[in-house]
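We modelled the chain as a single entity of 254 amino acids. Its sequence is:
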Amino acid sequence: MWIKSTMAYRASFVMTTAGNFAATALDFVAILLMFSRVDALGGWTLPEIAFLYGLSGIAFGLADLAIGSMERLGRRVRDGTLDTLLVRPAPVLAQVAADRFALRRLGRVVQGALVLGFALAHLDIDWTPLKVLLMPVMLLSGAAIFSAVFIGGAAFQFVAQDASEVQNAFTYGGTTLLQYPPTVFGKELVRGVTFVLPLAFVNWLPASHILERPYPLDLPDWVAFTPPLVAVACCALAGLAWRAGLMSYRSTGS
């Protein structure tokens, strides 16, 4: 329904998609400005950071496109309009995710793909069948991990009804963090996004294998192939959190 509504005004769709593309592209422009003054950042070259940027941008863009509307849940909890979703014969999670579905978010995915293409064109990677297979697996697993963060943040809004910005700190903030190499951050932060909120499995760890870079925290080589397992675990935990939050919902009482 929302896609049909969007495509009814094609010029508006093109302009908003282009605007979304341009807004996200400013992040990469900032990186280009940095490299106009330095040759490497944390020991990583521009194409290597562009590789991280593209992977993070595509993975997050896919998750944002699919369930980015979850950040509006707090508003529905506050005004009681979530009740209308509970009486419909469809999963509440799917309804919240589809609410005001914004196809313009494709701009972020396209922008990330272009940066990734730039990186691959300038990197001298010794491709093996395993590395080739790891690319799509990494993108899909990263999208699933970000989706789990979206759902977990939405579940938290059942308790703290005005916490969309807290959720954004881990979703939008997380993808910005992953655009830069782990070597520019302190070890405590790297540990946190590896063992607590496992965003490092979106691109840092598998990208280290593809680029033949040292692994963050001196982790073993096999962790580069664990993003699918991490994604499944994150989605399972997010599902449990969502179910617990939904079961605790008591409407507004009005």
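As a brief sanity check on the tokenised model: The chain has one domain: 2-248. Residues 129-156 form the longest helix (28 residues).
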